[in-house]
Amino acid sequence: MLRHLAAFTVESQLIAASLSAAILCLGWWAYCRCSRENGKHASASVQRSHEAAVVSLTLFLVSCAYSTTVRNAIAAWAGQLAVVPAVLVLGAAALLPLSFESIFPSAAASGPVAPLLPSAAATARLIRSRRSVFPKDYNGASVPRAAIERALEAANWAPTHGKTEAWRFTVFAGGQRIAQLEEAKLRALHEQLPPDQLPAALEKMERKRKDVAKVSHIIAIVVKRVRNAKGSLMPAWEETCSVACAVQNMHLSLTAEGFACYWSSGGVGGWAEAEAIRSLVGADGAVEGERDQVLGWFYVGCSSRMDFYKGRRGPIADKVTWLESE
């Protein structure tokens, strides 16, 4: 077998290797092209596979151009030995622009270069997969801090009118910190509620204690009242909408990683208004008499029951009115 391998010249081995690489890259490119529409690959994968295929084909042609065996074989057939390398090299040169056009598009390109984004189908699938999963269905496993940080970074890219970036988050990570929040809530209930309402609130809190114990992180959601660059306050409702968008970004990020989430409004307008709670979550500021606002609590955990949560929506056509020009 070694004698058979030795019979191949270095140039023949180079040709075989470059041809094999070209075939593999072409297969990769075809796969990426077919699967992009199904949301499995972004445009970047198609672009990279296309460039790899073209470069591999170019190497194959250049190898052939400088191969004595190939030149002699073609010359015996064509009778023009000197023309063969030039033809092959010109063919390789013609392929190179196809590779680099996507990197350096010309001004005369027919349209903009596709951004490195997931397909519309993949984006829609993620949005439709988002669920509010109750903490009772969490299993107590911890969510990695890196996943929480990625979700918070996604939240940071919410729309913000006036560039105020009014979202603020306090992350209670793990049982000890979550217990700290629960203790603050208990004190607030004792301070705020009249004697006839306190027993029911305490009973509800005790009933949910076992569910809270399954939660990995609780993230306090706060609207921070801040001035814009011109020194003005944006309308409170706009800032609230902005923070809600940030929470949605966070929820989608964690959904994409397979984690369970739930936005609770518990205590908003009630025990969450206690000064101790406000101080704990950084909602103790005020500008021109307008105080920061606690919008609720974002529960994060792991669950094996997420598939039991089925999303249902009525037809969008029932909720849209089109006013079209003739």
Name a few traits of the molecule.
alpha+beta, 6 strands, 51% helix, 4-stranded antiparallel β-sheet, two-stranded antiparallel ribbon, 326 residues
Your description of this structure?
Residues 127-301 form the Nitroreductase domain. Keywords: Flavoprotein, FMN, Membrane, NAD, NADP, Oxidoreductase, Transmembrane, Transmembrane helix. It holds the Pfam family Nitroreductase. This is Nitroreductase domain-containing protein. The chain crosses the membrane at residues 12-31, 74-96. It is elongated, with a radius of gyration of 31 Å. With 326 residues, it is α+β, with helices and mostly antiparallel strands. Helix 2 (10-36) runs antiparallel to helix 3. Strand 4 (286-287) and strand 5 form a beta hairpin. The strands form two sheets. Strands 1-2-6-3 form a four-stranded antiparallel beta sheet, with helices on both faces. A two-stranded antiparallel sheet has the order 4-5. 51% of the residues lie in helices and 10% in strands. It is built from eleven helices and six strands. The model is unreliable at 36-43 and 100-110 (pLDDT under 50).
